[in-house]
Design goal:
Radius of gyration: 16 Å
Strand content: 15-25%
Strand order of the largest sheet: 5-4-3-2-1-9-8-7-6
CATH architecture: Alpha-Beta Barrel
Number of domains: 1
CATH class: Alpha Beta
Helix content: 40-55%
Shape: globular
Number of strands: 9
Structural class: alpha/beta
């Protein structure tokens, strides 16, 4: 059975996207079946891109990545975002994100970071960089983590190894350069997104 597109556990990471590209890229991703999108804050004028995406795709979950401060959490909310993703585990950022009613996905790698994120109220965990710990490392973490806690592999996870990650306990994935690199045309984004969605559906079917 093909998963409901609204429920695919995929986050598109559009590092380097610019505001003029943002709305079209978001629409292409949503049409392909990826309904969660992050704009890393080290992208050009990231908050303008988030604002454009949120306006163009009101039913999608749009937000920011590389969120490092409580102040930026507020700015994501003000731009219309509902998703905050970080490369690190900062309890203050997690608490502020949840207080604003947004989803919080902090980056973790160790059991200490995982449980600090859980204690602070994280929506789910972003295993990052996934390539450093690999599926075997996730399998070991899963032995001690709450069963109902979603964990997404980010960095080193892609269509070629989705099945390995899922077998190890991953619930979903954040996809960056396999989906988008700066300057990529909208039709190319759509094509890459369709391939990723097909690979995801094949694993979770």
């Amino acid at each position: 059975m093909t998963p409901n597109p609204e429920r695919r556990n995929l986050i598109a990471i559009l590092r380097g996207i610019t505001p003029p590209e943002a709305a079209a890229a978001a629409l292409a991703l949503v049409q392909a079946g990826i309904t969660r999108i992050e704009v890393p804050l080290n992208s050009p004028d990231a908050f303008a891109s988030i604002r454009a995406m949120a306006a163009a795709t009101p039913d999608a979950e749009i937000g920011a990545g590389t969120v490092l401060t409580v102040e930026d959490v507020g700015r994501v909310k003000a731009a219309g975002g509902s998703l905050v993703v970080s490369p690190n585990c900062d309890p203050e950022v997690i608490i502020a994100t949840r207080a604003q009613g947004m989803a919080s996905w902090p980056g973790v790698m160790t059991p200490t970071e995982c449980f600090a994120a859980i204690k602070a109220g994280a929506t789910g965990l972003k295993l990052f960089p996934g390539s450093l710990i690999g599926p075997e490392g996730l399998k070991a973490l899963r032995a001690v983590l709450p069963r109902d806690l979603p964990v997404y592999a980010v960095g080193g996870a892609g269509p070629a190894n989705f099945a390995d990650w899922v077998k190890a306990g991953a619930n979903g994935f954040g996809i960056g350069t396999a989906l988008y690199t700066p300057g990529l045309a909208t039709d190319e984004i759509a094509s890459k997104a369709a391939a990723i969605v097909a690979a995801y559906d094949a694993v979770f079917a």
